[in-house]
Amino acid sequence: MIILIQLAFSMSSCFLNTKSSINNDVFHHPFMMKRTERSLDLKFLSGRWKITDQMRSTIEAFVDSYKKNSSTVIFIMLPSPTVSSAAIKSAANDIRSIFISNGIPANSISERLYDANYGLDIDTIRLSYFAARPYIGRQCGLWPNSIIKDNSLNGNWYNYGCAFHHNLLAQIDNPLDLIHPRLETLVDGEMTDKAIDSYYNKGLKK
């Protein structure tokens, strides 16, 4: 009889451990990825076609973001109709040249038209690409269960870790790091030799 009681108790303990293993912040607030568009709008006055130095810097920063976060096609979206088609086409060619000079292959650049039927004396060229963006699978601040009545397993409450996960995602430089690891760099032999010499010369090794 005692053996049966001990066996039942041990099995119930295993059951509780199994349930509590999924009652954590990773289970309730998982990291997920979705496809999102990133864009940059460049405004051109009527008849103006030259890319200014400030525009060039803005475009180059957009290119850096593209190279870091995406490997898809990058789009140069031209307005149609346009105030000055010749000026817009010239600006598009300049933008394409900036892309190529900053390391984007020509076959990764695509020009498209978009509906710009607004009748203003300002044309807008939109640069766009798609990238993966991490997000939390569930919203914070939800309390579907009572933490007093439904806490028989003595586990974490539903919102536990949600704000932490959101803050962590806000600090991630490259979302692709969540999908696959980066290539390991080679060991710096010179720095290794210096560290070993310092270790011996300071008498740390006896």
Automatic annotation (TrEMBL):
The record's annotation in InterPro entries points to: Pilus_biogenesis_CpaD-related, Pilus_CpaD
Among Pfam families, the record links this protein to: Pilus_CpaD
The source's domain of life comes to: Bacteria
Q: What NCBIfam families does this protein's entry cite?
A: pilus_cpaD
The protein, known as: Type IV pili component
Organism, scientific name: Candidatus Liberibacter americanus str. Sao Paulo
